[in-house]
Amino acid sequence: MTDEKTIVNERTKTELCTEDFFFELPEELIAQEPSKRRDACRMMVLDKLTGELSHKTFYEVIDYLRPEDILVVNSSKVIPARLLGTADKTGSPMELLLLRALDCGEWETLVRPGKRARVGASFTFGGVLSATVTGIVDGGNRTVRFSYDTEKYSNIYEVLDEVGNMPLPPYITKKLENKNDYQTVYAKEAGSAAAPTAGLHFTEELIERIKAKGVGFAEVTLHVGLGTFRPVKVKKIEEHLMHAEYFSISEETAREINERRSRGGRVIAVGTTACRVLESVANESGKLHSMQGSTSIFIYPGYKFKAIDALITNFHLPESTLLMLVSALAGRENVMRAYDEAVRERYRFFSFGDAMLIV
């Protein structure tokens, strides 16, 4: 039976401050669109023990994988959560951003402009979806209840596919031509407000080649929230409060990972979200078991990894929790030196950017 709980890790005292994770990033290095071929982006390889750097292409990742290893990916699917419509009473433009589904059948949303979103206000999107504000929660977010033609649509996700837009990060200003560009090829369970972007580099063909080599390929789920983009505003990083996100890991996945590791295989997380799931459910010896719930685990230097041995990730924002997680795995000095090199070598940063493999 699957456990359900909320995971909050113990905080580690550290002498590091948020500003220790700052680096100068030229704006032109922020990728505005994906590579024309997913697995043809650049890949920096960082040896976490020696700090040695190599420059490769992502499809060469297979050369760094051993048959006994296992890749663990986050198969959460991004929903077209940005809705553009009008207020029913005034016809004024309104924007809703879906944050998370609530157990009561309502959604927590971010509404703009908020002054028009009083309790009882209603909006229409694309002529097929209506929303009524039912409450105001902490931070000013609104809870809303949606209505649509249930004879035409079997669930709200079908409606969102028709009228919704992908909720791209604020640093991507170019219009997305194809919704699937912001979706991994293995995305399954709808629920994320942002993509687990390390997985965007994989193609179906590359995955098949990896499996043919004998490498394991397992899936977990973590629904990525907008808190991913929340900046760290405190000086002492251990005082930062992480957002909670829903996750699940099946008994089959946990068993396969445990078996691979018991035979000497490495557990390679694809992305910081998959990493956070595995570290949330691992016991002190690194053994995993099935679980679902929410996690607000915050990983930064000083953290002792229990579940993962290597990580595939992207290049992250300065002073971000994601950069701190990467630094916990590979060492802050190694990572900051690698980022300086990435800037010099004109790597592409953030969601549609290039990849980093930490081994």
- Principal-axis shape equals globular
Number of strands: 18
Total number of domains:
2
Radius of gyration: 21 Å
CATH architecture of the largest domain: 3-Layer(aba) Sandwich
Distance between the termini: 34 Å
CATH superfamily of the largest domain: QueA-like
Structure report:
This protein is 17% helix and 27% strand. The protein is of the alpha/beta class. It folds into two domains: 3-78 and 179-358, QueA-like (3-Layer(aba) Sandwich); 82-163, Thrombin, subunit H. The strands form three sheets. A ten-stranded mixed beta sheet has the order 1-16-14-13-4-15-17-18-2-3. Helix 5 (321-330) crosses helix 6 (332-344). The radius of gyration is 21 Å and the shape is globular. The protein starts with a strand and ends with a strand.
Element layout with pairings:
Layout lengths: L2 E5 L34 E5 L6 E5 L12 E5 L1 E3 L3 E6 L5 E9 L5 E6 L9 E4 L3 E8 L5 E6 L8 H8 L25 E4 L11 H9 L3 E7 L22 E5 L1 H12 L4 E4 L1 H10 L9 E5 L14 E5 L6 H10 L1 H13 L10 E4 L1
Parallel strand pairs: 1-16, 2-18, 4-13, 4-15, 5-12, 15-17
Antiparallel strand pairs: 2-3, 6-7, 6-9, 7-8, 8-11, 9-10, 10-11, 13-14, 14-16, 17-18
Offer a quick outline of the entry.
By secondary structure, the chain is of the alpha/beta class. It has 6 helices and 18 strands. The chain folds into 2 domains: 3-78 and 179-358, QueA-like (3-Layer(aba) Sandwich); 82-163, QueA-like (Thrombin, subunit H), CATH 2.40.10.240.
What would the keywords be for this entry?
alpha/beta, QueA-like, Thrombin, subunit H, 2 domains, 6-stranded antiparallel beta barrel, about 15% helix, globular
